[in-house]
Design goal:
130 residues; alpha+beta; four-stranded antiparallel β-sheet; two-stranded antiparallel sheet; 6 strands; 43% helix; globular
Length: 130
Amino acid sequence: MFEGIEFARDDDGWEYRMGCRFATPDECDSLGRQVGLATRSMMTDSVLYDAFVLAADKQGRIVNHEIDSWYEKQVTEVMRDEDDDSSWSLTYDRFTFGVLVDSQLRLVAAGYLATRGNGDSVSYRLTLPS
């Protein structure tokens, strides 16, 4: 997945695809469809990117990302439609974990997420190709 892709690392430990820049949620809002087309995985990556945008702070960071609660909160919010009861929520499981990690790696490789290891956890940051 990362073969032939060069990554940069800044002084704060963020690793991101060369030629990309950090972005704010406002800059990334409504880009899910574009991201899905870029990664060639429209059905998952576009939804998950929109969920990352929802989870990000004002600087575009998702610090100490907790994949299970993110899935059940932000991914549920992106997926919810007008026919769903307000208590409806997606349920996280082992299969879901694999799908999510695969998608997150595609988003990093495509230049839409930066990553930073924090010992026992990982953080993400929104990025955009320049």
